[in-house]
């Protein structure tokens, strides 16, 4: 029963391959694994010019800031 043994071996190899791939966290077939990063609007801190994602930025008077400290510092300078 050489044929049966070969089929069993092939099935075991396929199962092992799937387990290894899943363990490594690699993408499955049909996917390139290269997905475009989620589009995130970047805002520049009006104080230190650092770019931060809009979700993490602080906004005040039409300006964006990387943190509240820079927002406060910028507003202090405006006065
Ligand atoms: Zn800043």
Total beta strand runs = 4
Q: Which kinds of small molecule does this entry bind, naming each only once?
A: zinc ion
Kindly report how far apart the N and C termini lie. 90 Å
Helical proportion, percent range: 40-55%
Q: Mind summarizing the main beta sheet?
A: 2 strands, antiparallel
Which strand order spans the largest sheet, edge to edge or round the barrel?
Answer: 1-2
Gross geometry: rod-shaped
Number of domains: 2
Unreliable spans: none
User: Into which percentage range does the β-strand content fall?
Assistant: 15-25%
Structural class: alpha+beta
How many helices? The count is: 2
If you average the pLDDT, what whole number results?
A: 87
String of helices and strands: HEEEEH
- Indicate the radius of gyration in whole angstroms: 27 Å
Structure description:
It is a single chain. With 79 residues, the protein is α+β, with helices and mostly antiparallel strands. The chain folds into two domains: 1-28; 40-79, no CATH class. Helix content is 43%, strand content 15%. It is built from two helices and four strands, in the order αββββα. The strands form two sheets. Strands 1-2 form a two-stranded antiparallel sheet. Strand 3 (58-60) and strand 4 (63-65) form a beta hairpin. It is rod-shaped. The protein starts with a helix and ends with a helix. The model has no long low-confidence stretch (mean pLDDT 87). Bound molecules: zinc ion. Residues 45, 47-48, 50, 65-67, 70 line the site of zinc ion.
């Amino acid at each position: 029963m050489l044929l049966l043994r070969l089929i069993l071996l092939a099935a075991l190899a396929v199962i092992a391959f799937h387990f290894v791939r899943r363990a490594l966290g690699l993408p499955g077939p049909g996917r390139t694994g290269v997905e475009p990063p989620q589009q995130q609007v970047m805002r520049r801190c009006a104080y230190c010019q650092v770019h931060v994602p809009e979700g993490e930025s602080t906004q005040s008077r039409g300006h964006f800031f990387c943190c509240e400290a820079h927002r406060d510092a910028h507003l202090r300078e405006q006065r």
